[in-house]
Specification:
The protein is an alpha/beta fold. The chain contains ten helices and eight strands. Among the domains are: about 80 residues, no CATH class; about 70 residues, no CATH class. It is globular, with a radius of gyration of 19 Å. The N and C termini lie far apart (about 50 Å).
């Protein structure tokens, strides 16, 4: 990236502390690293854990089906963020600023980055393309999606998958609005949870017919099932 643009990297902005989003951060150790306060706390805990005898090997074993990641874990070095954000932090000059916002949702420490001048949102795992949405706090995620719909956005960089447009946010929210309405009716009829997952009244997730979904079908369906269970437990 630096070679392509002939510019030094100034910041690393972490959207959350899940390992697939922060375990390569040592590459950016010479930059200013920005994270939510909760994300910083989690990284500090990772650093302490990695110093414990045998911890790295136990963690590497967890990724035994991914030898490249397992090898990386044996040598990785995490870096404590320079800036920990409670709610919002602004980076860059006026007219070109990036807004780092802590939202929660996918995880308690989730944050997103918005560039008003570029009309671009980096969503982290609060929004995924190609895949089923991975729900943490579903109520909060839906609030976040509605907040995003009120922003001036042309491009959305999801936590996983291709860049999408603002209409994709609305498409995802509409699915979960429909899902919640269906689950509320089933809850009123006191359907047991095990019968809800396959109930014909539930809307079909729009991504199911995509090639990416088909290739990873078991994993993606598992995430949808978890989302349905999570929302069903919450509805009244």
């Amino acid at each position: 990236m630096e070679a392509r643009f002939s510019r030094a990297t100034s910041h690393l902005l972490l959207t959350h502390s899940h390992t697939d989003h922060c375990f390569a951060m040592e590459v950016f150790k010479d930059t200013t690293i920005v994270a939510s306060k909760k994300c910083t706390g989690k990284i500090k805990q990772y650093i302490r854990d990695l110093e414990k005898p045998g911890y790295r090997e136990r963690l590497a074993t967890y990724f035994k089906d991914d030898p490249e990641r397992a090898d990386a874990i044996r040598t990785l070095q995490l870096v404590e963020p320079n800036i920990s954000v409670k709610r919002e932090h602004t980076i860059g000059p006026e007219g070109q600023e990036l807004l780092f916002r802590v939202t929660g949702g996918h995880s308690p420490d989730s944050a997103n980055i918005y560039s008003p001048s570029e009309r671009t949102l980096c969503a982290g795992d609060n929004l995924l393309a190609w895949y089923a949405q991975v729900i943490g706090n579903g109520t909060r995620m839906m609030e976040v999606w509605r907040e995003w719909e009120n922003l001036d956005i042309d491009y959305v960089i999801p936590g996983h998958g291709d860049v999408v447009g603002k209409p994709y946010i609305t498409k995802v929210r509409h699915y979960f609005d429909e899902l919640l309405a269906a689950l509320q009716k089933l809850k009123a009829q006191q359907f047991p949870l095990e019968d809800v997952l396959q109930h014909p009244s539930l809307p079909e997730y729009f991504g199911k017919r995509s090639q990416h979904w088909i290739e990873g079908g078991r994993y993606h369906q598992h995430q949808i099932d978890l989302a349905i269970k999570s929302f069903y437990r919450r509805v009244r």
